[in-house]
Amino acid sequence: VKDSLARLSRCLLLNSNGEKFISHPFISTFFSNKANEEGIYENIAKQAGLIAYNKSIEILKELESIEKENEIGVSRKYQNLNYQLLSYVAPAHRLLIQGGQRELAEKLPFSFRGHFREMVFYSYQVQKDYLSTITFADEWLKIDPNDSKILLYKARGLRKLGKNQDAREILQSLVSLPSKKIKAMAARDLGYLELDDNEIDAAIYHFSYGVKQKNQHGIPVYPLVECDLAMALVDRAKLRGGRDPKRSQELTYAITLFE
Predict the structure, then answer these.
(1) Would you call 108 exposed, middle or buried from its count of C-beta atoms within 10 A (0-12, 13-18, 19+)?
(2) 176, 150 Cβ separation under 8 angstroms
(3) In degrees, to the nearest 5, what angle opens at C-alpha 146 toward C-alphas 140 and 148?
(4) What's the predicted TM-score (pTM) here?
């Protein structure tokens, strides 16, 4: 067994963490990219959405046939069917929209607004539709205006559309929040805004602030910002003269961060 696990690891098919074994990130990324290219996610969404839609309509018809009497058995059945309806309507609405079947989604018994939050992430990460990201974010923020994760993704969508100043205002407000992870994530995005303007020193300032956000064990709460800081340091070191002592210092620190 140990020999097999070792061979799988050498082939980049498996990662191990103590007694826990997971697929190597390369495998996950490879098949996710392949699925995106071939439209597999959209096909699954369409099929699953139709199944959930048909089940929702079936439950709705059964509900309409039940008279809401005071008898315990009837009342319980009516209540249980309503719970079932909600469990199907929510994914049906979300999946139909993801599968491009918005007209069918609007025919569902009632509108499920909670899907807006998930659609923020889906439109940004999968569809790369940044205008939709902002639209869905605005809809969800009407419900929960203090959702920091959604505000962060709205800022990212604004940056992708070239509205850097609007994005900066949101990110600066997020940096002042008590959550260390949100601070680090917002600082990272502020660093990207500075890189967009070729302000490498300002970018390093924000990345460094993100790295300073650590947990009780002294480990950065958002490790990705360490890589961003390291790459920025390498870029700045390249701009320095070969004899500049800061050049070797920055490269050394960058190597430490990469490690």
Answers:
(1) buried
(2) no
(3) 90
(4) 0.61
